[in-house]
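Just wondering, does anyone understand what follows?

——
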Amino acid sequence: EVGCPAGRLYRECLQEEGCPYSCAHLTRQMDCFSDGCEEGCHCPAGTYQHDGACVQECPCLVTEETLRELQNHSANASALPAVLTAQGRWVSLGQEVQPRDTIRSACSTCTCHNGQLNCSFTRCPLDGGFAPWSPWAPCSVSCGGLGHRTRARGCTSPPPANGGKDCVGPRTDIKYCQTPDCP
């Protein structure tokens, strides 16, 4: 009889057993060296080794791929998004998320389930913004009195997207212009 540490059981190999033995194997942080079972002291069936303990469900690791997907679905895809836990704590690359905990960024959420972050990626609504005004057009009359000049702007900086709001405000501007008498 082999003595195993507390909480561990000695197991001989069974045909259907094999890797993964630990959360590191399950989350692919560590490769399985063989498909077969390794004889020795292991966590009980249905549990995994993690940080020296046997756990029923593994935590998740925040990967570069997950952060990139969250970034791609944020309103500003050129900047890394703020990723927070449900308790409002910042999450960073390589950090562990506990089982059943949720992380969120802008409009997307990910929930940890047995070592895997299951994400629902949603593009955020992006409200439109006005572009700068165009230059003033020439006066509508070249001589002989009162005319008008116009300028315009579009809702293109940025255009509304993903159900975001359209720009609010005038798109054209008019002012009067006085011209000299005609010859």
Remarks:
- The helical segments are 23-26, 64-72.
- The first helix runs from residue 23 to 26.
